[in-house]
Protein: Prephenate dehydrogenase
Organism: Metallumcola ferriviriculae
Amino acid sequence: MTKFGRLVIVGLGLIGGSLAMAWKKAAVAEEIVGVDIDDAVCTMAETMGAVDWATREVAEAVSKAQVVVLAVPVAKIEQVAELVLKHIPRQCLITDVGSTKAGLTGRLSDIFAHRGTYIGGHPMAGSEQTGIAGADPYLFENAVYILTPRQENIPAVDQLALLVGKLGARSIIMPPGQHDAIVAAVSHLPHVVAAGLVNTASGVEERFPRTLMLAAGGFRDTTRIASGDPGLWQGICRANKEQLLQVLKEFQHNITHFIHLLAADDTDGIKGYLTRARITRESIPAKRRGFLPQVFDLVVTVPDRPGMIGSLAQLLGGHGVNIADIEILRAREGDGGTIRLGVQSAEALDRAVELLAGAGYPVRKL
């Protein structure tokens, strides 16, 4: 891939910051420039080494850009696009990271119809973290990155696909409407459902104050995406309103069906409902990351000795197993406790269990 001169990322939040860090690490451009309305964010991005330099001034950044990425919230993308249009070179590649595409792709294609080349994009990766402080150069590793061009054969699509590949992601070309229907089901609906689960538990907490205290790891894992930025997700839900309403109705139908099965004490029906879900869940490819990275968990019991977490990390890391997540579940002074470790593949999980068990630690998969 020919190295770009200047690549500009407008919006240095979690996604914009992570893109900057990943592309800077891959050396895809002579300079990576960041734009953000917050001076503190610009300073932090420079300090972290996410960008070569950052500024609040769009014109200053994009006037010599070869690639511009619009990484602002969906509700602000068109406004920022109009500003960018006034200053970009005529031969400039513009893309965005908006999580809805149908209406946006058409409107941005019109905005950049006579200046620059626009291709819609959506990296299917994320985190419950927010802001530049949560940026991670490996956020897009093994993730799917959807592209929604109006024409699939334009050279700029190949250029953008090569840039996506440098992130460690895999690009897929898809019609904007199809994209919106799919993400409504696998990204937007889960967030709304997670919020519903937390709000339901909160209601029970009002009647039985120890409810949330008793929430186990499974509840926290199931609902962790509810920790996402409410303002950002409000915009996403509204932008994909029609598709989200459709899948919410389908979800409501499923829940209503289960309510009827349970009320009727339909043993076979309840088992069939749960079995279908289990079979479908297990058919999801384990090695492909979706909107949130998949983590394979195990629980290990350790004695109460200083440096135990370091010992576990050294044992696994020394054999090529990387710990993606860690949580102390229970601990008792003088006795020990249990620690949850997360790794990023089924193979790594099996290897970790083998290594820990071989070292004498009681261990089990979750």
